Amino acid sequence: MIAYLEHFVHENNNDSEPNEHEQLVSSSMELDGSIDFRSTAFAGKDFGGLHATSPFAVVRPSGTHDIASVIRFASQSPNLTVAARGNGHSINGQAMANRGLVIDMKRGSEPVIDVVRCDGGYGYAVDVGGGALWEDVLKRCVSNFGLAPRSWTDYLGLTVGGTLSNAGVSGQTFRYGPQTSNVTELEVVTGTGDTVICSGDVNSDLFFSVLGGLGQFGIITRARVLVQPAPDMVRWIRVVYAEFEEFTRDAELLITRPEGESFDYVEGFVFVNSDDPVNGWASVVLDPDQLFDPSVMTRTENPVLYCLEVALHYNKGNCSSTVDTRVERLLGRLRFMEDTLFQVDLSYIEFLLRVKEAEKQAKANGIWDAPHPWLNLFVSKSSIADFDHFVFKKILKDGIGGPMLVYPILRSRWDERTSVVLPDGDIFYIVALLRFTKPYQKSPSVRDLVAQNHEIVQVCARKGLDFKLYLPHYNSEEGWKQHFGDRWDRFVEMKLRYDPMAILAPGQKIFTRQQS
Prior knowledge:
InterPro entries: Cytok_DH_C_sf, Cytokinin_DH_FAD/cytokin-bd, FAD-bd_PCMH, FAD-bd_PCMH-like_sf, FAD-bd_PCMH_sub1, FAD-bd_PCMH_sub2, FAD-linked_Oxase-like_C, FAD-linked_Oxidoreductases_BP. Its EC number is 1.5.99.12. This protein has 516 residues and is of the alpha+beta class. The chain folds into three domains: 2-106 and 498-508, Uridine Diphospho-n-acetylenolpyruvylglucosamine Reductase, domain 2, CATH 3.30.43; 114-229, Uridine Diphospho-n-acetylenolpyruvylglucosamine Reductase, domain 3 (2-Layer Sandwich); 233-469, Vanillyl-alcohol Oxidase, Chain A, domain 3. It is 30% helix and 22% strand. It has helices spanning 2-11, 20-29, 64-75, 134-145, 160-164, 173-176, 204-210, 244-256, 320-331, 348-352, 354-365, 381-395, 446-462, 477-484, 488-498; strands at 34-36, 57-60, 82-85, 101-104, 114-118, 123-129, 147-149, 183-190, 195-199, 218-229, 233-241, 265-272, 304-314, 342-347, 375-380, 404-410, 427-433, 467-469. Strands 14-11-13-12-16-17-15-18 form an eight-stranded antiparallel sheet. A hairpin with a 4-residue loop joins strand 5 and strand 6 (123-129). Helix 12 packs across helix 13 (446-462).
């Protein structure tokens, strides 16, 4: 019967009103929320703009019960799959379900449920809906409680469940670890339709599997996120380096200093040594009134330069001279180029929502909705100089039409019981190539940019660099086996335990749906 209904709906999805067969599907799921068989096009594409599918239907749940009902319904069919879609910010169709059921996780998910006291010396945490956007969590936590999560991503228009299913990294990761290291409890609906509360002590196999698990073992419907007192203000600073060795030395110095002897945020990026308005010197300044003096660049012939980006938290009660003194002391240890210091003060919320402003500009000029062939990697400290030599200075010496992030992270801040796989070494770097194509101007085609991504990965492999893809995407089981390495068997074991029919997250292309 279900297989017939699937076929019927696909053949008759141009009708404006629900027909009796669709109503039968809806009633069979016993939803308190709603199911939409018509307005599904948005769920068949994502931010990457590289893939498109046709979902069977979009479910807008009213709560965890509905999500469990959808999964149980799918398990009774011969081939239905289920994808949890947050804000659709995946790049390669990871949140899609071709001819399957897509759950719109943003519907009915409360940003913050409550503040709770944590055991084990963690202080406080907030219970957050899996479909809540981090930007809403930030605003609610700060305005209601004066608290804020410890670890972030650069862009906060992402859902809690979405980033926890990957890792969640940003400039605070060196100190607090990724977002997956900053949750103490999860509510998860598994691929068998069971709702399970799990933590590091209770149902720990599921807890650690789900964190960084790419949605393969369950859908996160609630997370208990660690928080701390939120500062009022941020001093945001950028300095420039001509040599990669000096850039990495200072970045690694900052992330290995004790708390109180370093900045609160450390990132960095590569930019082109030219006046290109997108890829060049102009990308470094923090304020429209600031100017980048190109004469300081006459000392180097390097095709690319390096910007170390740091930030210091403080409260309004701190006098400006105290903040200035601390900044000067911290910067005094660094070896950046003279006359390349840029800084600005802004509120803590403004700083964390800084990419939101870039999003507004990108939407205004059309590039936000254009394809985004992004590439994210973790590269070990032992290989990052070679990456700079072969990739930044050669393949990407003319820029990518967007940020080229590169900054170090401490492995010790990661809980390696999660599903995330990392390169070797105590320090590794995140490299994020955040391309923005220009839909209305002459620029490299999306196909060319995707090909360049493949070239970068192939060069890394051919030169023997130690790296792993972050937000990974492979089209074959062999690719996934190589990605997980000696952790593959464990990953498969957990899949068989918590989603034995491979109903969940089909867009990841790791497992194939099993017949019921």
